[in-house]
Amino acid sequence: MIILGLDPGTATTGYGIIKTTIPKHLPQDRNEKPKVIDFGCVTTTQSFSAGQRLEIIHREINKLIDKHKPDIISIESLYFFKNLKTVMPVSQAKGVIMLAAAQKKVPIFEFTPLQVKMAVVGYGRAEKKQVQEMTKQLLDLSGFDVKKKSRKKDDASDALGIALCAVLKNPTFDLS
Amino acid sequence: MIILGLDPGTATTGYGIIKTTIPKHLPQDRNEKPKVIDFGCVTTTQSFSAGQRLEIIHREINKLIDKHKPDIISIESLYFFKNLKTVMPVSQAKGVIMLAAAQKKVPIFEFTPLQVKMAVVGYGRAEKKQVQEMTKQLLDLSGFDVKKKSRKKDDASDALGIALCAVLKNPTFDLS
């Protein structure tokens, strides 16, 4: 099963693709780490109009879906009261991601930051750094030079955490 | 010049298409009313997933652009502090509309509710009904049975007001 995790944003949308070999409906063996297939960021600059930036995000997410054929997409829910200024552009970015998922018929699951923290660290008030560290521990990152891979490591790392959350929250993958 | 006005929403996106015969860079003759070409609503029901609803909105806006070939799109800006509950779904709908405009290379202009009220009624605290009434007065609605045309008249009427705002705010159409 392939999971595409996404941390949406207008300037930077982090993505992380992980693969688990656990068959459907079987309890997950926690010793078998999900393998990281790829991670990185879709970035857009202010030299583009808001519409053009959304067009880039939509196109790049489409490319990721075509390339990696995820079984599900896992995306972070927004807490608008935490991000009053960014809620509108981030929601617009999320809108075109939800559109891409619907057009490609990939089911999309949303998790709140609290759910991600609870699933990955086991503690709802965990720091961002702790989530990123645990994400690294829980995933098989062999083949990646994590430091070199991405300039915007944080967003990509968050996206891997969101992908991992989908696995941990649904250990049997009974996502139907 | 053809203007597509849009009042975005997940359940109902109102649209209104108007046409002015004023040539570019010439002051507008206020006695020549812009002609209403079409108006109505794109509606989606809760029986669809959020992604499917966005897909319907994106597809229907694309159809409107293909059919009417607007020179510009005029859309209402959101005031998030007025609509805390709906800001996320409405922004997502707006995101896929902005995407459609960018994909079709139609310039998009945003107007706040205050700008629409000022332009159409001349008074920033005008009631919704006043804006709708003035919109009707200022547009050439010949050929339409307004009462019959749309079940969700309000959203379509708002969209016509938003389209009209673009004309009134840019009487010379120097939109470059």
Describe this structure in words.
The structure is a homodimer of 176-residue chains. The first copy, chain A, is of the alpha/beta class and 176 residues long. Chain A has six helices and five strands; from the N terminus they run βββαβαβαααα. The first copy, chain A, has helices at residues 50-68, 87-103, 113-120, 128-138, 146-149, 153-169; strands at residues 2-7, 12-19, 35-43, 72-76, 108-111. The first copy, chain A, has a five-stranded mixed beta sheet. In chain A, helix 1 (50-68) packs parallel to helix 2 (87-103). Chain A is globular. The model of chain A has no long low-confidence stretch (mean pLDDT 86). The interface between A and B is medium-sized, with 25 and 25 residues.
N-C termini distance of chain A: 14 Å
Catalogue the unreliable spans of chain A: none
Task: Characterize the largest beta sheet of chain A: strand count, sense, and whether it forms a barrel.
Answer: 5 strands, mixed
Rg of chain A, Cα atoms, Å: 15 Å
Sheet-strand content of chain A, in percent, reads 15-25%
How many extended strands of chain A?
5
| Largest inter-chain contact set | A-B, 25 and 25 residues
Determine the oligomeric state from the structure: homodimer
